[in-house]
Amino acid sequence: MAISPHTKQYLLVLSLLSTAAASAFIFSDDAERSSRGDLFREILRDEAVARLDELGKVSDADGYLERTFMSPASVRAGNIIRGWMEDAGLRTWVDQMGNVHGRVEGMNASAEALLIGSHLDTVVDAGIFDGSLGVISALSALKVLYTNETLGKLRRPVEVIAFSDEEGVRFQSTFLGSAAVAGILPVTALQISDKSGLTVQEALEKNSIQITEKNLLQLKYDPRSVWGYIEIHIEQGPVLEWLGFPLGVVKGIAGQTRLKFKISLPSSPNAQLQVTVRGSQGHAGTVPMSMRQDPMTAAAELIVLLESLCKNPKDFLSYDSHCNDITVESLSSSLVCTVGEISTWPSASNVIPGQVTFTVDLRAMDDLGREAVIYELSKQIYQICERRSVSCVIDRKHDANAVTCDSELSSQLKSAAYSALKKMAGEIQEQIPALMSGAGHDALAMHHLTQVGMLFVRCRGGVSHSPAEHVLDDDVWAAGLALLAFLETHM
Questions:
Q1: How distant, in Å, are the alpha carbons of 85, 274, 429, 481 from that of 138?
Q2: Mind giving me the DSSP string for 36-80?
Q3: For 112-198, where are the E strands, in sequence order?
Q4: Which residues, other chains included, contact 388 with Cβ-Cβ below 8 Å and sequence gap of 6+?
């Protein structure tokens, strides 16, 4: 796919900025590494990087990467991944939510299974590593075992899942794939429509996958059959690069709430489904400033309020039994709030808008603190709307509680990462970093099924959801080698 001159320039700047940090962890000489048979460069690095590049070209758009739930490119990507699963000696199938599975039974098919996964869908104008890296690293590690004829020596079944949807781009509902496997996807999700009016159920049927409410419920795995779930993912942040480490263990995932605000005329349809601020539409040249009920200026004040509250929560929150020093301290270090979408009606330069809609994405590591922020935000929003003679309704579109990764799984992943980096670089003086994730991942859904653990991989500049997303080839190698070391503890 073609890359714009602007993107090329951005990539060059990021490369220059990140050179010092990226070189803080220097691997030993290539020739020395290649001579050691326990590093499996050809599979874990060269082939894995080539596969990431190949998958990055599977897109529904010309000139940029876009691959959404059950789109033609998504189906093609699933078929490619299924072929790579078979290349690693796995038995494969596609379930009725479009998830692609590859499984080896090991020495005891009745034992609890280890699940490894990530997603194959992307955002619009995406990078090639988000989601795909986790799937390909898993398949590379298993292919090493298959090539060495040790795959059958695993003492428990291992199953890799390429989830059909995590980003939620097409149907505005995240984790369609992993939530189905975890058993938390409501049957009503089948009737959610995309912008063209096609439902989730119809999108699946269009690809010859017949799904009903009954067999959606049957997709849930029996918790007694699952030992745990692990996921490898790019960090989507700058911490590992700043620390100079290729890998880090994830301690937990931030809880998340998404709100939708709609500021509109009293006659606006569907106001009860959104946060609505109602004003009065009028001519831009004839309505005096003192007589306006302008939802746009109200929205602007609300957005600035949100920024102030999230930058300095301690200045806004009241201390009580649910909000104490520990909660406020957690919010001060982890709370992030984003207005990512805004639209107006009728959206004309000479018309005072009658309706403004905007979204709020609010994330924090402390669930009680997140609720305290939402309460305070809502209270102040209603006060501002009343003062401006407009009305507001707030709709919560999405909620997910914070997840703490399993301590034993995290310890095992930390040891595996240390082992891999030691093989690649020799002696390591520092501990493997432990990080919190501000981004949601399939592990957030899988936590409802089983214990979860995650490994982060350094990405340049912390950039993600962008064609500028980049992971060093050696860091791809390190991720695969760490997962291989983890799997070998289950042999």
A1: 10, 40, 27, 10
A2: -TTS-HIIIIIIHHHHHHHHHT--SSSSSB---TT-HHHHHHHHH
A3: 113-119, 158-163
A4: 293, 294, 297, 298, 301
The count of residues in the chain is 491
* Closest by Cα among 141, 160, 169 to 59: 169
CA gap 122, 129 in Å, rounded: 10
Over the range 389-416, which residues count as b (16 or more CB within 10 Å of their CB) and which as e?
A: ebbbbbbebbebebbebbeebbebbbbb
- Locate 170 and state its tokens: 């097409």
128 membership: H or E segment, kind and range: none
Q: Indicate the pairing of strand 226-234 with strand 113-119.
A: parallel
The predicted-structure confidence for 317-336, as pLDDT tens digits, reads as follows 876 655 666 677 778 778 99
pLDDT single digits (tens) 31-45:
444 445 689 999 999
120-134 in b/e form (b: 16+ CB < 10 A) is bbbbeebbbbbbbbb
Question: Which of these, 52, 462, 400, 16, lies nearest to 248 by C-alpha position?
Answer: 462
Gap between the Cα atoms of 481 and 144, Å rounded: 10
0.85 surpassed by pTM: no
